[in-house]
Amino acid sequence: MFTGLVEMTGVLVGLHGEHLRLRPSKKFEKPVYGESVAVNGCCLTLERELAGGVLEFFTLAETQRRTNLGKLKPGALLNMERALRLGDRLGGHIVSGHIDAAAEVIDFRRMADGDYELRVALPESLAPEIVEKGSIAIDGVSLTVVDVGKSDFSVCLIPVTRNDTALVARTPGTLVNLEGDLVGKYIRRQFELRMEGAAAAPAPSGITMDTLREAGFL
C-alpha cells in the first residue's frame, strides 16, 4: 500500500523486455530485494540495484499494456514512492498501486488566479469513482478532484507537487496512470451487487392479507 506522496523522481534508463530500469533523483536508501515501489503509481517489485544506483524492476507485459510504462521513452521522468510502513503518517490517501486506466492529458496551464490546473480525459470505466473533492492518484500522486465533466476532470497542482514530482513534465496528449479511490471501489461494488440482487429477486405475487381474507382462507 502507498499514500500517493511521492518521495523522489527517477529517470527512465530503459525498458528491456519485462525489466524496467530507472535512475532515482536521489540516493535510494538500503534497497531491499523484492520490496514494492510505486513507479508512476504502478506497484512494481524491485529486483536489483545496478551500477550507478540504477534500479531494476520487473514489469509484466500486462502492466506495460495497461499503463503508460510500456509507452515511455528513455529519459522520461517518473514518480517513485516506497511502500507504506505501519506507523507512517497517511498524508495523502490509500493507494494500492493497481492502475485502473491510462488517460491523456488534455491541458496543463496556469489559470488567471495563479493556480496550475491539470485536466485529464475521463475514462468511462472510471467515471463512477471520480467525484468532486474526492481523491485520485495520477501517476502515483495523491490529488483532490476539483471538477468533473462528462469527458474529463481537473485537479490543481500546488508548488510542492510541481517542484517535487514528474507531473510538471506532463503535456497535452501524454498518457498518465489513474487509480480511483479504494474506498469508492468497494462502495461501487456493493451497490452493483445490491442492484443485481434486486433485479434477480422474484416479482411480488400480488397476494395480500386482504386477498386471502376475501378468498375465505382467513
C-alpha end-to-end distance: 61 Å
Helical coverage, percent range: 10-25%
Number of separate domains: 2
What is the approximate shape? elongated
Find the CATH topology of the largest domain: Elongation Factor Tu (Ef-tu), domain 3
Strand content: 35-45%
Strand order of the largest sheet: 1-2-5-4-3-6
Mean pLDDT: 90
Provide the CATH top-level class of the largest domain.
Mainly Beta
Major pleated sheet: 6 strands, antiparallel, barrel
Output the number of helix runs. 4
Global Rg: 23 Å
Structure, explained:
With 218 residues, the chain is α+β, with helices and mostly antiparallel strands. It has four helices and twelve strands. The longest helix has 19 residues, at 182-200.
Per-chain topology:
Elements: E1 8-16, E2 19-24, E3 36-39, E4 42-49, E5 55-58, H1 61-66, E6 77-82, E7 101-110, E8 116-121, E9 135-138, E10 141-148, E11 152-157, H2 159-164, E12 175-180, H3 182-200, H4 209-214
Antiparallel strand pairs: 1-2, 1-6, 2-5, 3-4, 3-6, 4-5, 7-8, 7-12, 8-11, 9-10, 9-12, 10-11
